[in-house]
Please model this.
Amino acid sequence: DIPAAVGTAGCKPLSLVVGDWVVSKRPDLLIIEAAVNDGDDLLENEDVCGVLRAAEGIVRTVQRRSPGTAIVFLEMFLRDDAEARVLKTGSEAWRDSRVEVSLAAAAAEPSGQPRYIAQVTNEQDCLLLCEADELCVSSTLLPGYGRARNLRCEVLGVDAAAGMPSPEGAEQESYSRDLTGPTASPSRGSSSPRKVLLATFATGPVFEETQLRLHESLGTAEIQEHWAWNKTTFDEGVHGDWYRRNAKVNFRRGGAWKPYLIWQSFRHVKWGDWLIYHDASQYVREGFSSSVQPLLDWLESKREENPCECLAATRLRQTIQHEWQQQCVGAYGPVERDFARAEQIHCGTMWRLGACTPSSRADCCAHLWRRPMMQHSWSVWRKNRRSARFLREWAKQSEEFDIVAHLPFVDQSLNSLLFYRWHEELQLKALWVPSLYRAHWAQDMDLSAVGRWDGVLLKHMNSVLDELYNEAITRKQKLWLTNPVEEQHTEGSEAAPESRGLTWCQSRAQPKRWARSLCIPDANRPALAARVVAAILYLSDGAGNEVPLSGRYKSPSGWNRDEYEPSRSNDPVGDLSIALLGPPKDGASHFGGGEPQLFAQGFAGALQLGQIRTPVPDIIGPDGVEFTPRRVLAEVTLLNDGSVPWPPGARLCPALGGGNFTRPEANFECFHEGQFGQQLSCGALKKGQLAVVRIATRLPGSELRGALRESRWALCDPETEKPFGVFFSLQFHPGVAP
Model:
């Protein structure tokens, strides 16, 4: 820094020393601040030309003799009231005037340009009114008392803006050429008919298919307009210029482009109308199944508690800590994630965004680290000043590479962090629909690698529209607006009883269950692995008839316990007694050393499917050999939770000697994604994929007399014949049905 200043000196004396003090030093940047003293000069002498000549002389001298120096003028507002002319000190002469400027004279000026006047809290709010409206030409802060509640902003629009609505807080109901006309009512009601713009983006056949289905269902959704963005939108024009300037923050999976297109679509919407953004998802490829208008009705009815009348994001059950530490889903951005420093990086980002400040609670970072994660697959925005403030911040911050590139889900994670940054000032609320989790789990949508923290249930707005309909039919609340900052993460919202115990956080999770939900592998566990996520036993009569022999067992990730739905009846099936009245047991007891011994033999897990008590059969076959035509069928859903694909051709084989009753004629079938139909072996199952295997073995005959029999199976690598994955066992007990 090179200080070059003279007290009480304006541009006139500074122009005489600029050569010695500035040009000789060849600075990169010159900041000229002579506004206060030039102002005193003008108040005393009214020598406008002299001040301008001196300022121009400084600029010309620097540009001629030091062309590499950039010049910045610091300007200030000049008071022109009579009282100011008596004052001689700069601090007094330049303070905000206490004399209110009459707007009547300004209104009488025959400019003919559509405009309105709105109350604002500061200059940034004034600028926002223009930035958020594509009909705006400029916005100017008018002189006033200098206190926030008295500031006014004049917004000028293009000719086409005449008669278009103005935002809440405006003194006119619309852009007007005559500001002396009718003033706006204190509160704005809903427009009729309600106007909605849908914004989507798609690149690639799968995404374009979903975008087309959304477009074809506009009538069903009662949406009037669709702005379908695609790759060509960013090829040319203003959007192309923006994309090229910000190429560094536009990634293969997300980035600045989504907040940008939402912000531009928001600017296109008229004040008071609605914008809906929706992902053209590869996960839920469908259009709207019903009207969005009931949801907008619901938001309008919640205006008092949710003034933005928006749904900025939907709350998920897992915490931000889980979002940042999970290794199940790869990084969306270009920066490799640093899991060891995830909490520190998160904390630094929250300070940079202003969510944590010196005046925040002492444990601000730790507190937000344990708050619920937000998902942004779709959002709803009423065009008002609160929504504009949030969307502008999201679009602006997403252009900062040092912020967005380090986030787990880039723009979506930024949306979540900004929600916590602005929730108090803008009174934002998060949408929380706990009933959707229970409904999706009942349909086995919790058996994947991510299990019960999967957000796919909220990927499409249809699920929320359906729950809103169910709320009306059952008269039981399904949709909640919550403040996740104050919510107790251990119990969920007091206002939503269904959410009790749903939040997935480290403090309440068993360590092994927490690590499993993060997809953190056990270093000693085999890379070629499998885990049972569901199982059930059936009894087959050999004629194609199957009846449940046990209850249903599930072991989803992201949950603190395994679940078992008992069989509906404890009555014997024929003369067969159901002994499997509880969930399967951990089969590691077969290995004297527990898990270490289990891993050493190539297994990743062990499960005892159950115990069956059956009478000795008295059926004699044609060759005089006793046999039982009935079979026990074990249907097991396996997850490849290892680090490598399964070897193609994996099939059933005896394990640990096969026990004393592992029939060679046991049937085996395997079905999974990427394999057509049920096969006698499994294909190269990829990491994170599911396979359903069916193992059928006949009930024991005379060999059951007086002894417990056990069958033991596993999957085997067809080349090495070595077992891998899960060790299964099933026990048969002799006796008669009780």
The radius of gyration is 35 Å. Residues 79-110, 488-494, 570-581 have pLDDT under 50 and may be disordered. Residues 531-734 form one domain.
